[in-house]
Specification:
Layout lengths: L11 H4 L6 H23 L3 E6 L6 H7 L1 E4 L5 H8 L6 E6 L10 E12 L7 E15 H6 L7 H4 L5 E4 L1 H8 L2
Parallel strand pairs: 1-3
Antiparallel strand pairs: 1-6, 2-5, 3-4, 4-5
Length: 177
Protein backbone atom coordinates (compact mmCIF):
# COMPACT_ATOMS: atom_id res chain seq x y z
CA UNK A 1 0.00 0.00 0.00
CA UNK A 2 1.30 3.42 -0.86
CA UNK A 3 0.89 5.82 2.01
CA UNK A 4 0.23 9.50 1.55
CA UNK A 5 2.01 11.70 4.08
CA UNK A 6 -0.20 13.74 6.41
CA UNK A 7 -3.28 12.13 4.96
CA UNK A 8 -5.83 10.39 7.14
CA UNK A 9 -7.01 7.90 4.52
CA UNK A 10 -6.73 4.22 5.34
CA UNK A 11 -7.22 1.80 2.50
CA UNK A 12 -9.66 -0.88 3.59
CA UNK A 13 -8.18 -3.34 1.11
CA UNK A 14 -4.91 -3.31 3.03
CA UNK A 15 -6.68 -3.77 6.36
CA UNK A 16 -8.24 -7.03 5.23
CA UNK A 17 -5.10 -8.35 3.55
CA UNK A 18 -3.84 -11.86 4.13
CA UNK A 19 -2.42 -12.21 7.64
CA UNK A 20 0.94 -13.34 6.21
CA UNK A 21 1.19 -10.30 4.00
CA UNK A 22 3.38 -7.35 4.82
CA UNK A 23 0.44 -5.16 3.83
CA UNK A 24 -1.17 -5.96 7.16
CA UNK A 25 1.82 -4.59 9.03
CA UNK A 26 1.78 -1.53 6.80
CA UNK A 27 -1.91 -1.01 7.49
CA UNK A 28 -1.30 -1.27 11.22
CA UNK A 29 1.54 1.22 10.93
CA UNK A 30 -0.70 3.56 8.96
CA UNK A 31 -3.38 3.25 11.62
CA UNK A 32 -0.88 4.08 14.35
CA UNK A 33 0.43 6.96 12.27
CA UNK A 34 -3.14 8.20 11.76
CA UNK A 35 -3.84 8.33 15.50
CA UNK A 36 -0.47 9.90 16.27
CA UNK A 37 -1.07 12.62 13.68
CA UNK A 38 -4.61 13.13 14.95
CA UNK A 39 -3.36 13.49 18.53
CA UNK A 40 -0.70 16.00 17.44
CA UNK A 41 -3.28 18.06 15.56
CA UNK A 42 -5.78 18.03 18.42
CA UNK A 43 -3.30 19.19 21.03
CA UNK A 44 -2.70 22.39 19.07
CA UNK A 45 -6.35 23.24 18.46
CA UNK A 46 -7.55 26.11 20.61
CA UNK A 47 -9.95 25.18 23.38
CA UNK A 48 -12.73 27.07 25.05
CA UNK A 49 -13.21 26.90 28.81
CA UNK A 50 -15.69 27.98 31.43
CA UNK A 51 -14.25 29.37 34.67
CA UNK A 52 -16.47 29.29 37.74
CA UNK A 53 -16.20 31.96 40.37
CA UNK A 54 -18.10 32.90 43.48
CA UNK A 55 -19.31 36.46 42.73
CA UNK A 56 -18.98 37.57 46.36
CA UNK A 57 -15.27 36.62 46.22
CA UNK A 58 -14.37 37.69 42.65
CA UNK A 59 -17.04 38.65 40.13
CA UNK A 60 -17.06 39.44 36.45
CA UNK A 61 -17.58 43.09 37.46
CA UNK A 62 -14.27 42.87 39.35
CA UNK A 63 -12.58 41.57 36.21
CA UNK A 64 -14.16 44.36 34.13
CA UNK A 65 -12.81 46.93 36.58
CA UNK A 66 -9.29 45.39 36.76
CA UNK A 67 -9.11 44.43 33.02
CA UNK A 68 -6.71 41.52 33.78
CA UNK A 69 -6.18 39.11 36.64
CA UNK A 70 -4.30 35.98 37.59
CA UNK A 71 -6.70 33.02 37.86
CA UNK A 72 -5.44 30.97 40.77
CA UNK A 73 -6.64 29.23 43.89
CA UNK A 74 -7.86 26.16 42.00
CA UNK A 75 -7.18 22.88 43.83
CA UNK A 76 -9.29 20.20 42.11
CA UNK A 77 -6.80 18.00 40.16
CA UNK A 78 -8.97 17.89 37.02
CA UNK A 79 -9.45 21.66 37.06
CA UNK A 80 -5.73 22.23 37.64
CA UNK A 81 -4.97 20.00 34.64
CA UNK A 82 -7.27 22.16 32.48
CA UNK A 83 -5.54 25.34 33.70
CA UNK A 84 -2.10 23.88 32.90
CA UNK A 85 -3.29 23.01 29.40
CA UNK A 86 -4.54 26.50 28.55
CA UNK A 87 -2.82 28.49 25.82
CA UNK A 88 -2.71 32.24 25.13
CA UNK A 89 -5.63 33.39 23.02
CA UNK A 90 -8.06 30.70 24.14
CA UNK A 91 -11.60 31.87 24.85
CA UNK A 92 -13.16 31.77 28.30
CA UNK A 93 -16.64 32.09 29.73
CA UNK A 94 -16.91 33.48 33.25
CA UNK A 95 -19.62 31.75 35.27
CA UNK A 96 -20.99 32.92 38.61
CA UNK A 97 -21.58 29.96 40.90
CA UNK A 98 -24.34 31.57 42.90
CA UNK A 99 -23.26 30.12 46.21
CA UNK A 100 -23.19 32.25 49.30
CA UNK A 101 -25.70 35.09 49.36
CA UNK A 102 -26.61 35.02 45.64
CA UNK A 103 -27.83 31.45 45.20
CA UNK A 104 -30.06 32.43 42.27
CA UNK A 105 -27.17 33.77 40.18
CA UNK A 106 -25.82 30.49 38.75
CA UNK A 107 -25.14 31.73 35.22
CA UNK A 108 -22.61 32.47 32.50
CA UNK A 109 -22.12 36.23 32.73
CA UNK A 110 -19.11 37.29 30.63
CA UNK A 111 -16.18 36.41 28.42
CA UNK A 112 -12.43 36.64 28.77
CA UNK A 113 -9.34 35.26 27.08
CA UNK A 114 -6.08 33.66 28.18
CA UNK A 115 -3.08 36.00 28.03
CA UNK A 116 -0.37 33.79 29.55
CA UNK A 117 0.08 30.57 31.51
CA UNK A 118 2.75 29.99 34.13
CA UNK A 119 2.76 26.25 34.83
CA UNK A 120 6.21 26.22 36.45
CA UNK A 121 4.53 24.84 39.56
CA UNK A 122 2.31 22.09 38.12
CA UNK A 123 0.15 21.94 41.24
CA UNK A 124 -0.73 25.65 41.14
CA UNK A 125 -0.63 27.00 37.58
CA UNK A 126 -1.18 30.74 37.24
CA UNK A 127 -3.28 31.80 34.27
CA UNK A 128 -3.36 35.48 33.34
CA UNK A 129 -6.68 36.39 31.75
CA UNK A 130 -8.06 39.59 30.26
CA UNK A 131 -11.64 40.72 30.27
CA UNK A 132 -13.82 40.30 27.21
CA UNK A 133 -17.39 41.52 27.33
CA UNK A 134 -20.49 40.93 29.39
CA UNK A 135 -22.92 38.39 27.96
CA UNK A 136 -26.01 40.29 26.85
CA UNK A 137 -28.38 37.56 28.02
CA UNK A 138 -26.68 35.57 30.79
CA UNK A 139 -27.38 31.84 30.51
CA UNK A 140 -28.61 30.26 33.73
CA UNK A 141 -27.72 26.78 34.89
CA UNK A 142 -31.38 25.80 34.50
CA UNK A 143 -31.27 26.85 30.81
CA UNK A 144 -27.95 25.09 30.29
CA UNK A 145 -29.33 21.82 31.67
CA UNK A 146 -32.15 21.86 29.09
CA UNK A 147 -29.76 21.98 26.11
CA UNK A 148 -28.73 18.68 24.51
CA UNK A 149 -25.24 20.01 23.75
CA UNK A 150 -24.54 20.10 27.49
CA UNK A 151 -25.92 16.63 28.32
CA UNK A 152 -22.46 15.14 28.82
CA UNK A 153 -20.62 18.33 29.74
CA UNK A 154 -18.75 18.37 33.06
CA UNK A 155 -20.64 21.60 33.73
CA UNK A 156 -23.74 19.46 34.21
CA UNK A 157 -22.25 16.08 35.19
CA UNK A 158 -19.52 17.34 37.57
CA UNK A 159 -21.09 20.30 39.27
CA UNK A 160 -18.11 21.03 41.52
CA UNK A 161 -15.53 21.23 38.71
CA UNK A 162 -14.37 24.86 38.58
CA UNK A 163 -12.64 24.80 35.17
CA UNK A 164 -14.76 23.17 32.48
CA UNK A 165 -13.70 22.54 28.86
CA UNK A 166 -16.29 23.64 26.32
CA UNK A 167 -16.94 22.72 22.71
CA UNK A 168 -17.16 25.55 20.18
CA UNK A 169 -20.94 24.97 19.99
CA UNK A 170 -21.28 25.21 23.77
CA UNK A 171 -19.21 28.39 23.87
CA UNK A 172 -21.24 29.92 21.04
CA UNK A 173 -24.55 29.17 22.72
CA UNK A 174 -23.39 30.49 26.11
CA UNK A 175 -22.23 33.83 24.69
CA UNK A 176 -25.13 34.17 22.26
CA UNK A 177 -23.22 33.80 18.98
Amino acid sequence: MKSRPNCFIIHISSLVADHKSTKRVAAGSDLISFFCNLFLCLQYLPMDYLLKTEPTVYSFADLEREKTTIWDGVTNPAAVKHLRGMKPGERLVIYHTGSGTKKDEKSAVGTASVMAVDASDPKTPLVKIKVGKAIAKPRTLAEIKTRAIFAESPLVTQGRLSVVPLTAAQYGWLVGE
